[in-house]
UniProtKB/TrEMBL annotation:
KW DNA-binding (keyword) present: yes
SUPFAM superfamilies, per the entry: GntR ligand-binding domain-like, Winged helix' DNA-binding domain
Source taxon at top rank: Bacteria
Protein's UniProt keywords contain Transcription: yes
Keywords, ordered alphabetically: DNA-binding, Transcription, Transcription regulation
Native source species: Alkalicoccobacillus gibsonii
Name of one Pfam family that matches: GntR
Residue ranges annotated for the HTH gntR-type domain, each copy included: 12-79
Gene3D superfamilies on file: GntR ligand-binding domain-like, Winged helix-like DNA-binding domain superfamily/Winged helix DNA-binding domain
UniProt cross-references to InterPro entries, sorted A to Z: GntR_C, TF_FadR/GntR_C, Tscrpt_reg_HTH_GntR, WH-like_DNA-bd_sf, WH_DNA-bd_sf
Classification via CDD domains: WHTH_GntR (cd07377)
Name by which UniProt lists this protein: GntR family transcriptional regulator
């Protein structure tokens, strides 16, 4: 299991390290929906004791990312499209507000950062590196939030976004809509720079609805991943 999460510096941070590592692996589909995982194997792989792993498993079960089946083990939950839609709906309400606010707070430095992000997105599309494109997509939205002082809101969106993100990662890995995502990002930036709140809102809504369009094709292609 590959992880970009920082290694724990003390026993008190081991649970957070295990939790964040597993959560990241579930989000990016490194741990696929329905796969069984064991406390013993995770503890050995991450070089920690069983206690923080057990605590992380409990938190992930609370987040509905792990399902504990008595006498059978722990399994990564299947993608729940009802939860995906709930996350999409909440995310739309928050991100529409953020993008409208950004239209009046955007700076030249913000614009430069987002233009650099788009250049990298284009490179990742050409190189078919969907995992890097996934990270840049998330960073693009965080940059918008940062430009108007709503980083905490962006963090809240990220925390509740795992089911949505798993479907998004599946979509990116299937190369369903890379061009559409990139074009939306370009148009969102253009609307923000032009201080056109209504246009920014419209494109953001269209952008976040892409995942709804992809659901049918993805469920047909990967039926065992879905609840």
């Amino acid at each position: 299991m590959n992880s970009s999460v920082n290694r724990p510096s003390s026993s008190s941070s081991s649970r957070v390290f295990v939790y964040e590592t597993l959560r990241q692996s579930i989000t990016t589909l490194n741990l696929k929906p329905g796969v069984a995982i064991s406390e013993k194997e995770i503890a050995a792989e991450l070089n920690v004791s069983r206690t923080p792993v057990r605590e992380a498993f409990l938190q992930l079960a609370h987040d509905q990312l792990l399902e504990v089946r008595p006498q059978r083990g722990s399994f990564v939950t299947l993608i729940d499209l009802d939860q995906v839609e709930d996350a999409r709906f909440i995310r739309e309400q928050l991100e529409v507000g953020i993008v409208r606010l950004a239209c009046s707070t955007f700076s030249e430095d913000d614009q430069q950062k987002m233009e650099t992000n788009l250049i990298l997105q284009e490179q990742m599309m050409k190189n078919q590196k969907y995992d890097e494109l996934f990270k840049l997509d998330g960073e693009f939205h965080r940059l918008i939030a940062s430009s108007c002082g709503k980083v905490k809101v962006a963090e809240m969106i990220q925390h509740m976004n795992v089911h949505f993100d798993r479907l998004r990662m599946l979509s990116l890995s299937s190369n369903l809509n890379w061009e559409a995502i990139y074009n939306h990002h370009q148009n969102i930036l253009k609307a923000i720079v032009n201080q056109n709140e209504d246009q920014a809102e419209q494109v953001m809504k269209e952008h976040l609805s892409l995942i709804t369009v992809d659901q049918v094709a993805l469920k047909k292609q990967f039926p065992i991943y879905f609840k």
